[in-house]
Amino acid sequence: MPPMPDIQLAALAPIGFAGFGAIVVLMGEVLLSRRQRFLGRPVSDAWIGSVLAFVSVFFLVLSAVASMQAYSLGYALVFNPDNPMIRIDRFASFGITLVALASALSCLLSVAYLATLRINHGEYYALLLLATSGMMLLIASTDLITVFLGFELMSIPLYALAGFDRSRVRSNESALKYFLVGAFASAILLYGMALLYGATGHTDFNGLRAALDFGSPLALAGLALVLVGFAFKVAAVPFHQWAPDVYEGAPTSVTAYMSVTVKVAAFAALLRLLGSAVGPAPENLSGVLWGLAAATLLLGNLMAVVQQNVKRLLAYSSIAHAGYVLMGLVSGTEGGQAAVLFYLLAYVFMNLGAFAVIVALARDGQDFDRISDFAGLSRTRPGLAGLMTLFMLSLAGIPPTAGFFAKFYIFSAAVDAGYLWLTVIAVLTTVVSVYYYLRLPVAMYMQEPSDEVPRAETSTGETLVLAVCAAGVVFFGIFPSHAPGMLSGIRALDWARESVAFLF
After folding, report:
1. Which of 135, 343, 348, 406 could covalently link to 265 via disulfide, CB atoms 3.0 to 4.6 Å apart?
2. How far is CA 160 from CA 74, 163, 283, 385, 455, in A?
3. What is the DSSP string of 205-231?
């Protein structure tokens, strides 16, 4: 009888908490919906949804705590050392904690918004937790098989979330487009993985790195198709077509969640794949990444200029930010990879905060998502106008915000690696982005209020999300590396550098 493998169950803890939370939420909705009253108060669908949202936040906090504890160990936890498909090291812990934080904030952001749409149901939070567990699995994967499983576990719940507002045609349309494009991308990704297996005889990253021959047409074709599959997920040009329509049509709380968590998970997985499975890339692969980054920067920023819908503007902005992150991958250095992680950290706070403002303005199920709707907002909702201005400045990379240092570290890594022309393109497109980001502050502070009146109050969950995002944008804009005094333990840039060391 063969000996039992040395299983490390702690490696599954962050993913397991999110997955188990989804089961608890589903069972909780079934049990609570059968009751007329609970603790002396009437049970309504909105009340059940609110309770299950906080249950979801509880399990996501457990995932984040388990991930941070794994980070503090300083060594990797491998579920099965004899077949290392899942690895919780400092790199995985950084990405999982970021995804768990963004998902928890998205749950809080969703409660009041979904209640106004009359769709605050428990399955929403179960789908969100399932998608989050898929993202965590994707980040922790060190084998092509678990990478694909993570992609599918992430994507399938997102298709349902994009069409969660079934009464609206735009939501249904966005779900169908996302499903069709996502299925196509998954097929390409799987075919590329099959070719890599055929060329190397391995699916684990260590085996791939040892056997990968860049002179083999089969291996190069497989690697190219895998990159295409990842490019679809991060909305890199020319695989970006789905993003504007899906961002606009999906419920805004779903768009906020997708816009940050999918990018963090997909880029973290791509970073591990390139660092651990591919190793030092040949010149032609660096050229492909260079072209993807340049095209994504140009199209994302130029198309955002002509948008009148804020959600579509932020969709093209998201495409442009994928280009900036790709610059860190092009550099191929530890400094560039650390800059990628710091950029993703800053992106979570500034992009989620921008969508949180749109959610907080929604009234009676109607989104205030056109630039004209923001006219005169400084007079009707001065607090939200100030926060939106802060998030726009950070997305544009204006100091002293987190977005400024995120771009600074990315640009510095590209210059140090010798990619001067790519940096020039990035700087020029950043100048373009300042124009369309400042359109909102101009409308809010220099135009008369529109006829449409936004919601007058902000829910507790929305206030908390806005406060956390604003604090993150300001704090990491002033102290990107080391904080003074009692906050000296917060070392974002050092965390990023320590994390990427585990890729090699």
Report:
1. 135
2. 38, 5, 40, 32, 28
3. HHHHHHH--TT-HHHHHHHHHHHHHHH
Q: What's the pTM value of the predicted model, to 2 decimals? A: 0.94
Structure tokens at 152: 């599918």
Percent of the chain with pLDDT over 90: 49
Terminal alpha carbon distance of the chain:
36
* Neighbour-count burial of 3, counting CB atoms closer than 10 A to its CB (0-12 exposed, 13-18 middle, 19+ buried): exposed
Distance CA 480, CA 475 (A): 8
**CB-CB contact of 135 with 262 (8 Å):** yes
The residue type found at 179 is F
- Relative orientation angle of helices 252-272 and 334-361, to the nearest 10 degrees: 170
In this predicted structure, the answer to whether residue 430 has a pLDDT above a threshold of 80 is yes
pLDDT for residue 347: 95
H-helix or E-strand containing 41?
strand 41-42
> How far does CA 322 lie from the centroid of its chain?
11
pLDDT tens track for 386-419: 999 999 999 999 989 999 999 999 999 999 988 8
**What are the residues whose beta carbons fall under 8 Å from the beta carbon of 489, sequence distance 6 or more?**
483
How is 141-199 classified by DSSP, letter by letter? B-BHHHHHHHHHHHHHHHHHHHT--TT-HHHHHHHHHHHHHHHHHHHHHHHHHHHHHHH
